[in-house]
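Backbone description:
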Amino acid sequence: MGKRTSRRRGLATESDTPFSEQVHLRNPEAARAYRIGIYGLIPPLSLVLGPLAVVLGFRARRRGRRDPTFTGGSLANAAIVLGALLTITSWAGLALMILGLRQS
């Protein structure tokens, strides 16, 4: 029988993942938007940081459309999605808590 080879793929030369150092160094706006979205997972902070992550994510994505060397598109998209989900869930939760307190 022959020698088995590994099925793993090699790393791309320019990775566009949230864990890539290259993305952080080249795209501080997209990385900042993503980090703010992650910090927004702390429940009371999500009321403010969720919308902020969405705004910063859109700004970073708009910059990416103008700059052909921009590689932080996935970070900007992740910040937009995460920020939108945080905004919806945190504000809906706050509204439900207020309605629940009024009825009791």
Notes: The chain has one domain: 27-103. Residues 50 and 83 are 4 Å apart (CA to CA).
